[in-house]
Amino acid sequence: MNNLLNILIALLIIGWLVGYIGFGTAVGSLIHILLVLALIGLVYRLFSGRKSGV
Predict the structure, then answer these.
(1) Which of 30, 38, 39, 49 lies in the 20 to 30 Å Cα band around 3?
(2) pTM above 0.70, yes or no
(3) SS3 letters for 4-48?
């Protein structure tokens, strides 16, 4: 599951870059939703990492 989340974060960031550079004026600020989703996924991954336990 962790590997899948990494791939999803990478795809969202790449999609955001392509959309922002290629279609920045046509799409406007809607393309930033991809960046926000990627950041949410990254924060979730950081906080739900391996828990140290018994």
Answers:
(1) 30
(2) no
(3) HHHHHHHHHHHHHHHHHHHHHHHHHHHHHHHHHHHHHHHHHHHHC
Who contacts 13 (Cβ-Cβ below 8 Å, separation ≥6)?
Answer: 34, 35, 38
> Mapping DSSP to helix (H, G, I), strand (E, B) and coil, where does residue 53 land?
coil
**Domains of the chain, residue spans:** 2-44
Dihedral of the alpha carbons of 21, 25, 27, 31, in degrees to the nearest 10: 40
Structure token pair of residue 36: 């926000």
d(CA 8, CA 43): 13
- Report the alpha-carbon distance of residue 53 to residue 26 in Å, rounded: 50
The tens digit of pLDDT for each residue in 9-28 reads 888 888 778 777 777 666 66
